[in-house]
Amino acid sequence: MNLKELSSQLGLSQTTVSRALNGYPEVSESTRLRVMAAAEQFNYAPSTRAKGLATGKALAIGHVIPTSKTHEMVNPIFGDFIAGAGEEYARQGYEMILSVLNNDDDEAQVYTSLKSRRAVDGVIVHAPKMDDSRIKLLIDLDLPFVVHGRASGVSLPYSWLDVNNRSAFHRATRFLYDLGHRRIALLNGMEQMDFAMRRRRGFEDALRESGLTPDPALMFAEEMTEDYGYARTSELLKLDARPTAILASSLITALGARRAIEDAGLKMGRDVSIITHDDRLSYLRNGGDVPIFTATRSSVRDAGRDLAAMLLQIIAQPDKSPMHTLFEAELTVGQSTGPAPT
Q1: Pairing mode, strands 145-148 and 160-163
Q2: Average of pLDDT values for 270-290?
Q3: pLDDT higher than threshold 60 for residue 71
Q4: 232, CA 20 to 30 Å: which among 93, 184, 314, 328?
């Protein structure tokens, strides 16, 4: 049954039925109850488009996803984030629109089009750079948004949710130092990204506080793939003074580092220790009861759910002050770390 048929059955206009289903106050309580009872009787559920026409909203949230050779957003981490966000959208009656951005596309035009077409009620900004121009653009467009992460170079007020990356990598580095490691390598993400720069700063701060000088020969910043972890770790293990520990920015990168250690005839946790960041991915678990990797752990799925809820709250309350949420990562000890070899 569609809206027209339900309205005919009740002897009411389509507008009245739509407003009754969407809780408009100008519809009397008796009419609303009659409409709700009929909708249940005839198993009628208004479409998102019908709800949008009644409320003046798109009832959709946008995600603009860049795809390129230097930064690929479509990965297991993004998939878990979207799963968490999607749960919250569904709970509140919203849908999701993904706009894929190729290298030659004008990103500003994509956001401008979403706004001008009223295709979405808001957007989530992914993978913020240190000085991210999207934040000012979205403020100027008056399009509600939240940022998954932070942009250190932007002083404008905006809402964000982030993990304390600097604190997490500071703590991980000190943990390795306390185990006796003095040659510690960093396999970081691309450092134009804000999260990666914060992780480097936490790593370097911990080294200096421990009386060590950061060594550029032991620090890398690339796309966080398994191949990257394997290739860079293989290079590190060929050094005369090879590192005894590695700090990796992704569980995927850590898997490549482990493969390189084993191919070199060494044992992870005995000859070379690894600490990684674990996003608690649904389909890439860090072991069972005892983690495989010692890790700084924070659920990206929870982040997606919480950030979606934050954005929907902003959409419902446009005058609300910017909202900020900072998660602390949990350091979990697994099988990948041990005392520095003598």
Answers
A1: parallel
A2: 92
A3: no
A4: 328
pLDDT of residue 53: 53
Element (H, E) at 197: helix 194-209
Cα dihedral across residues 297, 301, 306, 307: positive or negative: positive
Residue 268 and residue 336 in contact, taking contact as beta carbons nearer than 8 Å = yes
pLDDT band at 65 (very low <50, low <70, confident <90, very high): confident
Alpha carbon of 7 to those of 42, 43, 297: distances in Å? Answer: 12, 14, 52
Helices vs strands, H then E, count in the chain: 12, 12
Token pair, residue 63, equals: 């995600």
pLDDT over 90 for what percent of the chain? 73
Number of Cβ within a 10 Å radius of residue 317? 9
Q: Give the CA radius of gyration of the chain.
A: 25
Is the pLDDT reported for residue 45 higher than 80? no
- The secondary structure of 280-320 as a DSSP string is -BTTB---SSS-SSEEEE--HHHHHHHHHHHHHHHHH-TTP
Q: How far is CA 254 from CA 168, 234, 276, 284, 293, in A?
A: 16, 12, 6, 12, 8
The C-alpha atoms of residue 246 and residue 242 are separated, in whole angstroms, by: 10
pTM recorded for the entire structure: 0.84
Q: Which pLDDT tens digit goes with each residue over 20-44?
A: 877 667 788 888 889 888 888 888 7
pLDDT at 36: 85
Residue 48 has pLDDT above 60, yes or no: no
Residues sharing a CB contact under 8 Å with residue 275, sequence separation 6 or more, in sequence order:
172, 175, 176, 245, 246, 247, 248, 293, 294, 295, 296, 336, 337
| CB-based contact 101:64 (threshold 8 Å) | yes
Residues 6 or more apart whose CB falls under 8 angstroms from that of 150 comprise 128, 160, 162, 194
Helix H or strand E encompassing 226: helix 226-236
Question: Are residues 166 and 198 in contact, defined by beta-carbon separation less than 8 angstroms?
Answer: yes
Helix axes of 29-41 and 3-10: crossing angle, nearest 10 degrees: 120
